């Protein structure tokens, strides 16, 4: 449910960049690389701090909409959206919109909480 690369993969990437060394880079590229390393680590920390419980409401909302293997719920959602089944106003569409909004906010809490704060959303609210 989280975007790729995962938090552990971002941490690994940051470590790899550090091991390669950024000191030999020109100042502007070194600053960019250092910022990218820190951003990777910050996302990994926020994702780890949120844990899997942060996604529980989204999993529950998906389970209320779809039956069967939970690992296929997003595929079912995508197929329903692509088919146009949610184009017309309906209670089901409202539930899907609420689910997608919740998912978007959770992803932003982990990947870019400053964006939320800058736009009047509490990045820590659940």
Short description:
The protein is mostly helical. 68% of the residues lie in helices and 0% in strands.
SSE blueprint and pairings:
Elements: H1 7-20, H2 27-50, H3 56-65, H4 73-83, H5 91-111, H6 113-118
Average pLDDT, rounded to a whole number, is 92
Helix and strand content put the structural class at: mainly alpha
Low-confidence stretches: none
Number of domains: 2
Give the number of DSSP strands: 0
Largest sheet: none
Output the keywords:
2 domains, single chain, 68% helix, 126 residues, 6 helices, mainly alpha
Describe the structure in your own words.
This protein has 126 residues and is mainly α. It has two domains: 1-50; 52-126, no CATH class. Helices cover 68% and strands 0% of the residues. The chain contains six helices and no strands. It has helices at residues 7-20, 27-50, 56-65, 73-83, 91-111, 113-118. α1 packs antiparallel against α2 (27-50). The mean pLDDT is 92.
């Amino acid at each position: 449910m989280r975007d790729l690369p995962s938090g552990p993969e971002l941490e690994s990437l940051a470590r790899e960049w550090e091991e390669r060394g950024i000191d030999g880079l020109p100042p502007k590229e070194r600053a960019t690389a250092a910022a990218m390393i820190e951003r990777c680590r910050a996302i990994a920390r926020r994702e780890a701090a949120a844990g899997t419980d942060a996604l529980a409401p989204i999993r529950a909302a998906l389970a209320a909409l779809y039956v069967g293997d939970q690992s296929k719920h997003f595929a079912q959602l995508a197929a329903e959206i692509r088919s146009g089944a949610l184009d017309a106003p309906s209670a089901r569409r409202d539930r899907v919109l609420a689910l997608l909004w919740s998912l978007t906010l959770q992803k932003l809490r982990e990947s870019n909480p400053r964006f939320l704060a800058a736009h009047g959303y509490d990045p820590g609210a659940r």
